Amino acid sequence: MLNTDYTITIIEDDPLQLENLETALIEQGFQVKAFTERKPAEASFDEALPDLVISDIILGNEIDGGFELAKHLLSYERAIPVIFLSERQSEFDIYTGHALGAIDYLPKPISLSVLTAKVKNLLRITGTAPTPDKVEKSVIDGLRLANEEFKAYWKDKALDLTATEFEMLKQFALTGERGVVTYDNLQESTQGVVERNTINTHICRIRSAFKKIDPTFNMIHNEYGRGYSWYEK
After folding, report:
1. DSSP 3-state of 158
2. CB-based contacts of 145, cutoff 8 Å, min separation 6
3. CA-to-CA distance for 3 and 29, rounded, in angstroms?
């Protein structure tokens, strides 16, 4: 059963929408901190980091307020998952949100039942460490998993990954070279947090994380219509 002893920060400039979001999450047993502006929310992060942030993109007069908030969160050592809620649904906006580390980008008007289900799935992934007898090890040479920390290491150097990206990369680590990691595998690994149409964005971020360490990295390849596989060309 999911432990609901989690703190969720919501930033939404529409008071009515904010109240609806806050009420829905409190009814599920979560502790909620609600803000209508970006800067007070960021100030609260210095006091205590939440387990999850849910934010609109446009915050008052700040057209990209949610994106600026996500950039601020990247300055902390601990990765904080972000879910964006927005009427802005251009490919560029969705890409930008994920490029800033967002775990999901949902359209408004939002279904509160869908949102709470996604929140529970996400916190189940990020809030549960594996038991010692279930620790999963990478079968790919040079790639090491630190499951309890949701971190992965390439040639002993830490990769800059979100918790969701770690779960996706783990599928490659456990499948091994030449094995196909299907789109379904990748969605199931995040318990539905990642949508099919955003998988490629996360894979691009995973590749970029490797290239920050090894600019010549070219091991993750698309298998048309099936998914991805790991091998050296």
Report:
1. strand
2. 136, 137, 138, 151, 152, 153, 170, 173
3. 9
